Amino acid sequence: MNEIAGESTVELVGTTDSERPFQEALSELFAGDGTIYVVSGYFTYQGYLSIRNDVVSFLERSRENKLVVIVGPASDQFSARIAHDLWGLDDCDRVRLYKQPRGLHAKLYLRDGPEPTCIIGSANITQVAFEYNVELGLEMTRAHSDHPDLKPFLEWAHDLVASSEPLRRRDLFGPVLVGSSFVNWSNKARLLPMRNVALRVGPVLLLLFFLAGLFRLV
Question: Which residues neighbour 53 within 8 Å (Cβ) at sequence distance 6 or greater?
Answer without folding.
Answer: none
